[in-house]
């Protein structure tokens, strides 16, 4: 069991979940999945940093607004980066199919499943960052008023 502790938040990953994350990293292509995983870590870090600084008095609202904007930007960028990975992966797969000639449909379906990993992780990060951005934006509005 892997335990990651960030301030008071504790994230517990079982062996099965850790193996799944590592498997997706390798199968989905390390050149696209690793930056997406790094973006997840950065967005989580920025969210925690925002909450810590928000609860401190005499907080600079402009810095918090920039941090909030960075959260939504990274989420959007990660989704687009995942789509780029899928497009390049499908392009290379279709090129291999063309060279090989006759390919089984099961092999093509497996390749399409793998090509969806990067956009899927990017899309979930986009959703999380959008929800986080919306909540933080409303917190900032309440602080200003």
In brief:
The protein is mostly helical and 145 residues long. The chain has helices at 15-27, 30-54, 61-100, 105-115, 117-144; strands at 2-6, 9-13. A hairpin with a 2-residue loop joins strand 1 and strand 2.
Along the chain, the helix and strand elements come as EEHHHHH
In one word, what is the shape?
elongated
> How many β strands by DSSP?
2
Widest sheet, order of strands: 1-2
Q: What order do the helices and strands come in, and which of them pair?
A:
Layout: E1 2-6, E2 9-13, H1 15-27, H2 30-54, H3 61-100, H4 105-115, H5 117-144
Antiparallel strand pairs: 1-2
Helix pairs in contact: 1-2, 2-3, 2-5, 3-4, 3-5
How would you describe the overall organization of this protein?
There is one protein chain. The protein is built from five helices and two strands. The chain has 145 residues and is mostly helical. It has one domain. The longest helix has 40 residues, at 61-100.
Question: Key features?
Answer:
145 residues, mainly alpha, 81% helix, elongated
